């Protein structure tokens, strides 16, 4: 059969493609956004997992929107207003796909920061959206560019990761959050707020969601891959009920519903007395690894390699002197360290600034040190 035109134009995910090479013996991976498997709260999940065979009703077909007790928990925990509802997805990535298929027609214009999350670029590309790129600053999107785009073009939605952005780690300031919400309301642009790293803040105060300033103009995507386990493949979309209803219809056609047994296990985990302590341990560990990576970069890499400091999340953005960043990433892999080049995070490849996205959550402190030793040699080869 002939491939659909929309698929012909989509490049495979660099990160998924490199995963097998990054996991090869002797390779230290700073590439994927992988949580440390040793931190998975399996002990907290053990009782509910062992008890699954005693609950055969969980293995029957279920409601498309999700396991009712879990939905009720989310409604209370996130204090959803009466006009809002939620849908549980097979990872928040599916939630993004449901949004694209529900609200985007081929040729519709949407806005994303540049650089931006690769998975979102792929989803919106498959929906054949016209992606308008907005520059990113240290405290969030360039507001002048954003307002100009909203004012001069017919924009359907603005997708962003305001808390510890993937790939740059940037966290939007409170003023930027309020202004983006105001602009979305003023120009009737839906705001799609993706917050998979929000709970991983290890420094500073938690900031309000952008959507809290424009609740009737937003959808929020949440993930449990980073704070529970990726393998349970569960995410959540919340927002006004008339915006959630179309997602439910698309999901019915896509997969009927996400795993009910895993939803029951997740509910027990979230309600477990030890879950908050698990999050604290996770934040402490990631904070230590982040500091170790930052210290090694300062000690071993040239001053021309600039890194952004972050207060949470899983990534830092290492800006490089002018170089072929794709060739550098390939050489790095040959030297036993996997990294992701900045080029994969841009829709418009001609505006790419040479940089690397580095993950600090999966490798231990000794591995992070060795990875930067190897990367220093590669940078010396490519950045002269």
From TrEMBL:
In this chain the Aminotransferase class I/classII large domain maps to 31-372
One Pfam match: Aminotran_1_2
| SUPFAM superfamilies found in the cross-reference section | PLP-dependent transferases
| Nucleus among keywords | no
Q: Name one GO molecular function term.
A: transaminase activity
Which keywords annotate this record? Aminotransferase, Pyridoxal phosphate, Transferase
Checking InterPro entries in the record gives: Aminotransferase_I/II_large (IPR004839), Class-I_PLP-dep_aminotransf (IPR050859), PyrdxlP-dep_Trfase (IPR015424), PyrdxlP-dep_Trfase_major (IPR015421), PyrdxlP-dep_Trfase_small (IPR015422)
The Swiss-Prot or TrEMBL record lists the needed cofactor(s) as:
pyridoxal 5'-phosphate
Quick one: signal sequence residues?
Answer: none
UniProt entry tagged with the keyword Transferase: yes
The record ties this protein, via PANTHER family, to:
AMINOTRANSFERASE, KYNURENINE_ALPHA-AMINOADIPATE AMINOTRANSFERASE, MITOCHONDRIAL
Q: What is this protein called?
A: PLP-dependent aminotransferase family protein
Query: What is the native source organism of this protein?
Result: Colwellia echini
